[in-house]
Write a structure and sequence with these properties.
The chain contains six helices and eight strands. By secondary structure, the protein is an alpha/beta fold. An eight-stranded mixed sheet has the order 3-2-1-4-5-6-7-8, with helices on both faces. Helix 1 runs parallel beside helix 6. The protein is globular and about 50 Å long. The N and C termini lie far apart (40 Å). Bound molecules: 5-O-phosphono-beta-D-ribofuranosylamine. 5-O-phosphono-beta-D-ribofuranosylamine binds next to helix 1, strand 5 and helix 6.
Length: 206
């Protein structure tokens, strides 16, 4: 019997973080397996990748799930049906409602492209550049009712170079995200190395 924790990955687009999780999960030593990839957008490229790689891919139907409450119920039903015990948000562009967040307290995590609590929300790279910050990066954190506000599980940082644009910074941070998310998930599930609610800056080459 597998001792891997079944996880659900929720996405809305490209799905490169989901692919990083799927690649990591392919290793027998990784403590999670992907039980569900669900998207609120039927045309999300990440969903196609999931289908092509025999992952359990599911479209969350926004048409029939009217209003936030019923959309959350659609998410919860899909997740429960899959047997997933943890929800990993990976570029999921919908805000989860308070009932869902509270029912899954401590069992929903997200990756965000900034060093939280700096730059919650959108356009993180352009905002970081406009402020002239010298360090930037990404954060894996618990999801709570406040958007991008939950306790931090792990962070990875890089130095901003003078020639960076929002696009080059986004690409460089994304590479870090692909390393951080599987590592943070594994640490969270095993309780090793990166204690919950503590940030850990990875010194990765930039
Ligand atoms: C990532 O930058 C993630 O941090 C943010 O949305 C983006 C999703 O990218 N929440 P992808 O779909 O995983 O490629």
């Amino acid at each position: 019997m597998s001792t891997k924790t079944p996880i659900a990955v929720l996405l809305s687009g490209r799905g490169s973080n989901m692919r990083a999780l799927a690649n990591a999960a392919a290793s027998p030593d990784f403590p999670a397996r992907i039980a569900l990839v669900a998207s609120d957008r039927a045309d999300a490229p990440g969903l196609n990748f999931a289908r092509q790689n025999d992952l359990n891919a599911h479209v969350l139907d926004r048409g029939t799930a009217r209003g936030r409450g019923s959309f959350d119920a659609a998410i919860e039903a899909a997740v429960r049906r899959s047997g997933a015990e943890l929800i990993c948000l990976a570029g999921f562009m919908r805000i989860l409602g308070p009932d869902l967040v509270s029912a899954w307290h401590g069992r929903i995590i997200n990756i965000h492209p900034s060093l939280l609590p700096l730059y919650p929300g959108l356009d993180t790279h352009a905002r970081a550049l406009a402020d002239g910050v010298k360090l930037h990066g990404c954060t894996v954190h618990h999801v709570t009712e406040g958007v991008d506000e939950g306790p931090i599980i792990a962070q990875a940082a890089l130095t901003v170079s003078r020639s960076d644009t929002a696009d080059t910074l986004a690409a460089r941070v994304l590479t870090l995200e692909h390393q951080l998310y599987p590592a943070a998930l594994a640490a969270h599930l095993t309780g090793n190395d990166l204690p919950e609610q503590k940030a850990a800056i990875f010194s990765l080459p930039v």
